[in-house]
Every structure is written in structure tokens, then in C-alpha cells.
Amino acid sequence: MLVILDQFVMTTVFDGCQAILSKLRDDRDRNLNLHPTPPKQPARTLLLLGPSRAGKSTIAKVLADSLYQPPKRELYAVTRQPEPQQIGGLRIIDMPGFCDLQTQKRNLLKNTTILDMLGEQIRRNDPIHLFAFVFSLSDGINQWDINTMLLVQSKMPHLSEKMMLVVTHAEEMDEDMKDRLIKDFFNHPEVRKNDLRSFFKQGVFFVGSLRYESLQQNNYEALVIEHQSVLEMRKKLIDKCFKVDHSHNKRELRNRNQRSPLSLILWLVVMVCVSSAIIIYLTGLFPLPHHPIIDLIEFEDMQKVENEQLKVENEQLKEKNEQLKLENEQLKEENEQLKEKNEQQRRAIEIQNKQVTDFAASFLNNTINTECETKDTHVHKKEER
Ligand SMILES: Nc1nc2c(ncn2[C@@H]2O[C@H](COP(=O)(O)OP(=O)(O)OP(=O)(O)O)[C@@H](O)[C@H]2O)c(=O)[nH]1
Ligand SMILES: [Mg+2]
User: Fold this and answer.
1) Angle at 98 between CA 94 and CA 69, to 5 degrees
2) CA dist., res. 381 & res. 384, Å (int)
3) How many whole angstroms from 57 Cα to the centroid of ligand 2?
4) Residues 222-229: what's their mean pLDDT?
5) Digit-coded pLDDT (tens) for 77-119
6) Which ligand 1 atom sits closest to the C-alpha of 78?
7) I need a surface site. Which of 33, 114, 132, 251 has the fewest CB within 10 A?
8) Is pLDDT larger for residue 369 or for residue 6?
9) Whose CA is nearest to atom 14 of ligand 1?
10) Which residue's CA is the closest to the ligand 1 atom numbered 24?
């Protein structure tokens, strides 16, 4: 009863989404601790990468404002090139997603192109303190996400030291659910086989945003819970960005500086071999084979796009089918009505026919009777004579 009353009061008081948002903003701003701005110092850089539509751009927006209102969901990829943004002392580089989804095949960003972009960003923005591999578990474990992780792991293994896993769409998850999801994910056979857990050396984090549906329905109760959860996860992520543990990097740097002369010679030999291979490749004598995993993933990308297109076509066909079914139903109904009419007419004609036959029969009878009577009278008269 109390809940219903509360809901009633809330819907009466907050008659629109804007009113709810401004109430949430007031509550949030009363305690600045809840919504920290990334500090100016030390300056940090966070790079967001991962599959297309995972929620990378949304993270940047939520870090800027916990009350970010997501637009209606779109099917196709949005970010087409790296988008740097500055929030306080935090520089965020939002990358286009792997396994790009576009209506036009010619507009597709290949995984190799995105890997090139990633390399370019790493060179330009040195040092990048953290890399966040962003993906969503809201629709379960997805083979594309695992493929993308394996691609990054195989092409950029050195990023492992600074790599964390960030799971989006977590605004409705409690801590138990988060633990269970991550446990299940790391127990996936392919994830275990490729030891992806140890690739994400900076750990696992969760993020979320206000849900589009809750905003549309002006659902005050849902928005309060979602916002609370967004605030907590946002704070943890900002803390992580400013307290990155780089002890392993220092150790690595020390090891690098202590390289022996033998390792330097070995390194030189390797460099000579690699440059010769590159020269041979460029002169076209022995073309190097394409990396099979990239071939596989690009082929799978295309299949994914085709699958999406087929899904859309399928939906359209389903709709058409529904319309045809409706039309068919109407035709059936009309047919039934016509049959009934036909039956009524047939019965009326039958009755008329019967009446005509009866009338003709009685008329014939009468005529025969009259003729017989006349003949009888003649016969009587003759006999009398
Ligand atoms: N509820 C909820 N929706 C989210 C979250 N993250 C992303 N979305 C929605 O998911 C869709 C994709 O989010 P984006 O942030 O554009 O994803 P992206 O990874 O930047 O996508 P691309 O740029 O196309 O690669 C949008 O409709 C978002 O509103 C989240 O944490 N919670
Ligand atoms: Mg994006």
C-alpha cells in the first residue's frame, strides 16, 4: 500500500522526466563526494577499445555526467574514428569498435584498420596509463567479444600490463550478480584456454548508465536505483584511473635498462632478419601470407554484417507475412459470408421450385379430372340413348 502511495506521489510530483532528473541532480550535488570530477593532477589517459556497440562512448559520457541520458538504441556502429575528450585531468580516447556494423559494406572499418588506429593513438598519446577493453554481458557471453579479445591479445600482448576489462550495462546488477557473471565468463572454455584472465592485469570493472526505457517511462523508482549504481561504479572507475599500479612497469623498465651485451647482439640479429624480410616482402619476391586470425575475424565480420542484414530482412518478411495472414483471414471471412448467402439463395430457390411443381401437379390433376368427368357424361348419355 505504501509503495503504491509513494509511486502515486512521485508520479504526481514528477510529471516529467526533466523534473525527475533535476531532483536526482539536486540530491547528487548536495554531496560532491558522490560525483567526483577527475582531478587535474596527475594527468591521466584512458583508452577505450572493444567490440562495436559495447558502450565505449557511453562510458566517456557517464564519466562527464552521471545523469547522461542515452538516446534510443541504434543497430549500427557510431564512432568512426578515435575521439579524444578531456574530463578534468582525465584524457579519454574513445576508439571505434572492432567487428564494425554498417549498412554499406564499403563503409566498414576493418579490424586491421582499427588495429592501425590503435597503434597510431598509442604513439601519439604516450603514455597511455590504462586501456579499458569494454564489452557487455547483458545478452550473455558472445563469441564476437571473445574473438575481439583474442585479436587484441595476439596483436598487442604488451598492453596486458595496463589492460582492464570493463563490463557495461551493469546499472541493474548487484554485487552477487557481477561476481557470478565474471566467474562464468572466466570459466568459458575458450577464455580459460587462452588465459584471458591474466591478459587483463588491471582487473575487472563495471559501468552503467540510466536506462533509456526508465527515462521514457518517467520511472522515478527505477531511475533512483540506476543512478545510485551508476554513481558508485563511476567513482570506482575514476579512482582506478588515478591510482594505477605501475610497479610492474617500473620493474620492466629496470630489467630493460640492465640488458646484457649478448642480448643486445641478439636483438641486433633479430632486427637485421626482420628488416631483410620486410625488404624481400616489399620487392614482391616472396609475398608473406596474411595472418590467419585476421583473415578469420574479417571473414567473420562480413558474416556478422550479412547476418544483421538478413535479420532485418527477416523482420520485414515476418511483418509482410503477418499482413498477408490478416488479409487471408479477411478473405476467409468474406468467403464464409458469401457461402452463407449462397446457401440462403439456394434454399429460397428450392422452396420456389417446390411451390411451382406442386402448383403444376395440382393443375394437371384438376384438368385430367375434368376431362374424365366430361367423358363419363358422354358415355352415360350414349348408354341412355
Ligand atoms: N542501459 C545501458 N545502455 C548502455 C550502456 N552502455 C551503452 N549503452 C547503450 O548501448 C548502445 C551503444 O552504446 P555506445 O556507447 O554508442 O557504444 P560504442 O561502443 O561506443 O559503439 P560504437 O561507437 O558504435 O563502437 C547505446 O544505445 C547506449 O545507450 C550501459 O551501460 N547501460
Ligand atoms: Mg562509440
Assistant:
1) 45
2) 5
3) 4
4) 98
5) 789 999 999 999 999 999 999 987 766 666 788 999 999 999 9
6) 24
7) 33
8) 369
9) 55
10) 77
Task: Specify the residue for cell string 526533466.
Answer: 18
The answer to whether 157 and 191 are in contact (CB under 8 A) is: no
What are the pLDDT digits (tens) for 40-75?
989 999 999 999 999 999 999 999 999 999 998 877
Domain ranges of the chain: 2-258, 263-323
* pLDDT value of position 279: 81
C-alpha 25: how far from chain center: 29
CB 234 within 8 A of CB 209: no
Distance CA 13, CA 1 (A): 18
What pTM value is reported for the model?
0.66
- Beta partners for residue 205, in sequence order: 166
Its CATH architecture, for the domain 2-258, is: 3-Layer(aba) Sandwich (3.40)
Residue 12 DSSP SS3:
helix
Q: At residue 151, what is the residue type?
A: L
Question: Among residues 138, 76, 148, which one has the least CA distance to residue 112?
Answer: 148
Question: What's the 128 CA to ligand 1 centre distance in angstroms?
Answer: 23
For the stretch 267-298, pLDDT in tens is 888 899 888 888 877 776 555 444 445 545 55
Which residues are within 5 Å of ligand 2 (an ion), measured at CB? Answer: 56-57, 78-79
Query: Which of the listed residues 57, 58, 237 should we mutate to test ligand 1's pocket, taking the one with most ligand atoms within 8 A of CB?
Result: 58
Question: Distance between CA atoms of 33 and 25, rounded to whole angstroms?
Answer: 13
DSSP state of 73: -
pLDDT in tens, 324-366: 999 999 999 999 999 999 999 999 999 999 998 888 888 888 8
